[in-house]
Amino acid sequence: MKLSVVIPAYNEAEGIETFHQDLLLPGVKNATKNYEIIYINDGSKDKTLELLTRIAKKDSNVKVVNLSRNFGKEIATTAGIFQASGDATIILDADGQHPPAIIDQFTAKWKKGAQVVIGVRNKQQHEGFIKEFGSKLFYKAFNGTSGEAMVPRSTDFRLISKEVREEFLKFAERNRITRGLIDWLGFKREYIIFDSPERLAGEASYKTSQLIKLATNSFVSLSLKPLFLFGWIGATITTISLIIGVFVALEQFILGDPLQLNFTGSALLGIFISFLVGIVLMSQGMIAVYLSHVHSQSQGRPLFVIDKSTSSNIQ
Ligand code: UDP
Ligand code: MG
Fold it and tell me: Most buried one in 133, 195, 218, 245, CB count within 10 A?
């Protein structure tokens, strides 16, 4: 059996050499003798490419895919999965937060028949309030709207078998979230709980705004329910205002206000109009999000562009 290891790297120069040492041992070499390591340099602005190329020169098991610019982690990971040729492919971060020492646990589960092995971050760990709260909210909302359940704290640290990889490569959507797509595929899943250490060096490059974008993207790409939801809200509000309208008409104008409510028409009208305008705007906003997806998909650009002159050991 051959194991492919896919690692997206963006500005990881400081820690990448230490990471590579750990990746070999106690990492990959504990799991198998037959392996390939595929680094994807995602348009790093530091010396990441230089260091990776040096590593690849010394070791024929190491390949470097150099993307022509920064495409983001999700696309970079996909680029790596495209290059993988093993019987199983494992994906992990280049910053040491996905400990290579437990790779053999993933392959063990795979050997026992699992087709997708998912790393789940340990509950005790804290990520900072916004990330923690945001991801909780995300999983709650996501699992409420989409068919396939996503386990909270599940990460991109995961192994997929050859057949899952083949199916994964059929996805053509541009706004993608790797773990969402793998979850969507189904197959036989197993979980491994792990403690995520601090980064080896540097800082996480996902900012809060990017995380919000990622969450929105996964909603839009994996679920159509938000679009329907706003339709339902609109229908409900229209119905309620219709009922109230009929009540006011009856009570005030036909029966001559027996309850002495003295509705002022303009006040009611003002509230209703602003309410309805809000709804119209919200649904227009939703439509715009979907439209932007249709738009970028219809442009039909390639998912990523490899700069062949600077990618080592690529056929
Ligand atoms: N990464 C990437 N492209 C990007 C941002 C990040 O390939 O535009 C890689 C990064 O080098 C690391 C992984 O994705 O290997 C996770 O990134 P990071 O540690 O910044 O995010 P975290 O998920 O830990 O918050
Ligand atoms: Mg990280």
Answer: 218
